[in-house]
Design a protein that fits this description.
By secondary structure, the chain is an alpha/beta fold. It folds into two domains: 78 residues, GMP Synthetase, Chain A, domain 3; 258 residues, P-loop containing nucleotide triphosphate hydrolases (Rossmann fold), CATH 3.40.50.300. It contains ten helices and 15 strands. Strands 4, 5, 6, 9, 10, 11, 12, 13, 14 and 15 form a ten-stranded mixed β-sheet that branches. The chain has a three-stranded mixed β-sheet with strand order 1-2-3, with helices on both faces. Helix 1 crosses helix 2, helix 3 crosses helix 10 and helix 5 crosses helix 6. The protein is elongated. Bound molecules: adenosine-5'-diphosphate. The site of adenosine-5'-diphosphate (ADP) has 18 residues, from helix 3, strand 13, strand 15 and helix 9. The site of adenosine-5'-diphosphate has 18 residues, from helix 3, strand 13, strand 15 and helix 9.
Length: 378
């Protein structure tokens, strides 16, 4: 059983008014399937209560018939009264800039023009910080952006985005993403007890990641940014199986040991068939109170590593006290608007990084055939 077989079963259920199947009538708003749980949202606009009930029953029966009761643990059917999905407020403010025009790439359960994973060879190099700032920077350019905390072993987004006191809203079997900092964000950290260690065996990690992707009501996005767990492993494999990614960004600090791990992470992405969009060097240097720049870890190491790997260098982010403070206080937007000299410098580096990634994603999409540049002759 999978999402497609649920959809096929629904196609055979007659719509009481349209006279066609539910799919042809455009009444199927959402289908999700995960580990024996099927969840369907139908648009019952134009139907009276009795017709909605009968469609619900017929849809449930059709899904159960298609699956056989032994494979399904639960079928959830929701029939909404109004026209499709009342759209969630989109964080989109203006037409996307810098991206080439092209059809949205439907990547299984997620409708996003670009899906970008942010990975690192080891923990503590600032992978989550880069993922958060990338997402915020893209949203500031007018893109509709989702940010998913795929780091299910050590989710950082609740703190970094200030989600501490916000409860997740569940509609049917779908979870509403958190609308914060002009993003749609989802993290397992907001769904579980923050004091319990998250110990996942391989199949559980697979299931948790899958549910976050499939059962979050992402809506249509320009970018979905996925913060991966550090290192190499199950989650990256699950992601590669589930989603068609535009590519991955590898975050690295300049030291040699960090580079060795980052090279392994880059090779893992390549083995999984995921294009490496490039390398970001985080914690490149530190600006002291005296205004001098100190190359604590040896600036430029990640740039040389990118050259060795033959992938683009996407920018450098200096060690900045405000970035750490803004992450701890859940206010990463401040990284882009701090008027102090150090703040302005940080914002400029972050914006350069965001633009490089935006450009590399557009190029990768063209290479992969998702987007076509158009030529207008007048
Ligand atoms: P990872 O996801 O790789 O484990 P995090 O993004 O959680 O790393 O960063 C680890 C810590 O380092 C956090 O406290 C974060 O605020 C801080 N940090 C990351 N990048 C920077 C930077 N450029 N300047 C200052 N602090 C940073």
């Amino acid at each position: 059983m999978d999402k497609n077989s649920v959809q096929q079963a629904l196609a055979g259920v007659p719509h009481p008014v349209a006279g066609t199947g539910l799919v042809a009538a455009g009444a199927v708003a959402k289908v999700a399937y995960c580990d024996g749980y099927a969840s369907v949202r139908l648009n019952g606009g134009g139907l009276n209560a009795a017709q909605r009930k009968s469609v619900e029953n017929a849809a449930r029966a059709a899904v159960l018939r298609a699956a056989g009761p032994e494979t399904l643990r639960e079928v959830h059917i929701e029939v909404t009264e109004d026209a499709p999905d009342a759209p969630l407020p989109e964080p989109k403010a203006a037409a996307p800039t810098g991206a080439l025009p092209g059809a949205p790439s439907t990547s299984g359960p997620v409708q996003a023009r670009h899906i970008i994973a942010v990975g690192a060879g080891k923990g503590g190099v600032g992978k989550s910080s880069i993922a958060v700032n990338l997402a915020i920077g893209l949203a500031r350019k007018g893109h509709a952006v989702g940010l998913m905390d795929g780091d299910i072993y050590g989710p950082s987004l609740p703190t970094m985005l200030g989600l501490g006191a916000i409860d997740a809203a569940v509609r049917g079997r779908m979870i509403e993403p958190f609308l914060v900092h002009n993003l749609k964000a989802m993290t397992i950290g907001a769904l579980v007890d923050p004091d319990k260690p998250l110990v996942w065996r391989g199949p559980m990690a697979h299931g948790a990641f899958k549910q976050l992707v499939e059962q979050t009501n992402w809506g249509e996005l320009d970018y979905l940014i996925i913060d991966l767990p550090p290192g190499t492993g199950d989650v990256a494999l699950t992601m590669a199986q589930m989603l068609k990614l535009t590519g991955a960004v590898v975050v690295c600090t300049p030291q040699k040991v960090a580079q060795d791990d980052a090279i392994r992470a880059a090779k893992m992405f390549q083995q999984l068939g995921i294009e490496v969009l490039g390398v970001v060097e985080n914690m490149s240097w530190f600006v002291g109170d005296d205004g001098k720049e100190y190359d604590i870890f040896g600036r430029g190491g990640a740039q040389r590593m990118a050259q060795r790997l033959g992938v683009p260098f996407l920018g450098a982010v200096p060690i900045t006290m405000a970035l750490r403070e803004n992450s701890d206080s859940g206010n990463p937007t401040a990284n882009f608007i701090d008027p102090s000299p150090a703040g302005r410098r940080l914002a400029a580096h972050l914006e350069t990084m965001v633009t490089s990634i935006e450009n590399q994603a557009s190029l990768a999409a063209v290479r992969q055939g998702h987007a076509r540049p158009t030529l207008t002759i007048s």
